[in-house]
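Bench notes, afternoon.
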Amino acid sequence: MRANLILSLAVILTMSCAAFAAQTAEPPADEQEAPLTFWPTKTMIDRSLDRFCDEIDREQGLDEFQSAGLRAVIKSHIPRFLEENRSQLQRLLAEYLEAEMYDEVPSTEDVADWATRAQPMLAEFRQTVDGLRVEMKEFLPADLVAKLDKEFPEFTKGMDETQAELERLAGGGYDPNSDWVPGPVRMKRWRRQNEAQIQRAVAEQEAAAAQAEANKLSAATSRPSDAWTQYTDAFIKRYDLNAEQQQKAHTYLDQAHERRAAHVLRVGQELNRLQQAINTAETEEQRTALTERHDALLAPTEKIFDELKENLDTLPTRAQRRALEAETQPATSPAEPAPAAEEEPASPPE
């Protein structure tokens, strides 16, 4: 996982707002005075969050239900925060990028306005991350929960420092000579003054990438992939589904995963408690009773899997079913010719 799990959650906000070339938002009422900028699509946000969750999953070795719970919690908070603050984020980003791309230095009034508008969003994002941390405790393993608690003060310290800087700028403390350097000039200066640091950073990134690839290969060989995905992929291959059918199959799979994640989120805390009790049970009778209760909580996920199978079974056409039957039927041997009928002896002449 990244060096700091909590701070990684904050990175999602920055990347989601500034790093994607995506669809343009619908024009606001004051279209001529409110410039638009890029905004990530739902798919882009989902995929960026999936990559984040995949990294945690690989590094921490989460089981199937912990992984599903993690995705459900993160995807229930981050996209909602972005959408609720979409208009303000777009306008702030557009105004900042416009100033960044030109040599004109923004005025103290402009910077104070940006800082004032950013303060409530920063406070809301801090609450969002805190809510994520609390909900994650319900299903993540104890060692990872302890790590979250250990790192959270570092996150709050960073938020406090950022909030204090915004308060300084909002109060007119902006100094154009020291606080602002045009983008191209700043980049040249940074490259010139920090060449050694850049080289070290590149080396660290290459080492981290190599380690991540090694971890990925290790995870691929040591941990089975999701059984529902395996079943869906095998079903697609078995019936040789076309592109449209495959898309529907993956939609059914995604819907099933979302339903399972929602269920795990509801019962995750009890599942963890029962699993810990199973591991420490003193007698076989206790272990059996606890296991039955644990399995009963998971029973709805089996029903969801059965419904996924039923949905997939609606996709193949009659021709595809006949083709599969023809492939799976045992080969029949050629029919043996019927024995020739014996001729009756001719009657003797009278």
